[in-house]
Amino acid sequence: MESISYRELKKSEIRITLFANFNRYQDVKKCWRNENGEWILKDIAFTEQWGSDEYKCLIKCLKNTIKTGGVVVGAFNNNELVGFASVESQFFGSQKEYLQLSSIHISYENRSKGIGKKIFSLVCKKAEYMGAQSLYISAHSSQESQAFYKAMNCIEAVEYNTKLVDEEPCDCQLEYRLLKII
C-alpha cells in the first residue's frame, strides 16, 4: 500500500535529483479557448513531456519562490517526489487579495489518486496563512487540467492578471476563494 507524505520543501532540497523519477507527461486532446466571450472546448492535440531544459527552469523558479518568501509543498511516496505545488509571496489585484499558485503538478503515474486534491488543499492553507483572500491560477487550458480545477471549485478569475495573461495567452485565468478551504 502506498503511503504518501506531504511537506514544505527547503530551497536546498530543490535540485535535479529531486525530479529524477518525476514524469511530467500529458497527452492533450482538447483545450478550452475563449472566443468572443464564450468558453469553447476545441480539438487541440499535443503531447507535453518535460526534459532537462524544463526541469532546469523549474528548479530556478522554485528556488526563487522560496527565496522571495513563497512556499513549495511536495508529495512523496517512499521519499520519491510524486507531486508538488508552489505559491508566490507577492500580492496583487485591486485589493491586493491574490497570491499566485504558480505550479501544481502530479507525476503521470500518480494522477487520480487524490494527491492533487490534498496538495491543493495544503497550499490553500499556506496561502490563507500568508494573508491571501484568493489563489490566482493561470492554468493550463487542457480539458483534464480544467476538470481538476473545476473539481476544486475554482472559478474564472474576477480580475485578470495581465502580466500572466501575456506570458501564457492560452491559459485559463482562474481563482480559488480561500474562505472555503476544501
Automatic annotation (TrEMBL):
Transmembrane segments: none annotated. The keyword Transmembrane does not apply. Pfam families: Acetyltransf_1. Keywords: Transferase. GO terms for molecular function: acyltransferase activity, transferring groups other than amino-acyl groups. It comes from the Bacteria. This is Acetyltransferase (GNAT) domain-containing protein. It comes from Clostridium gasigenes.
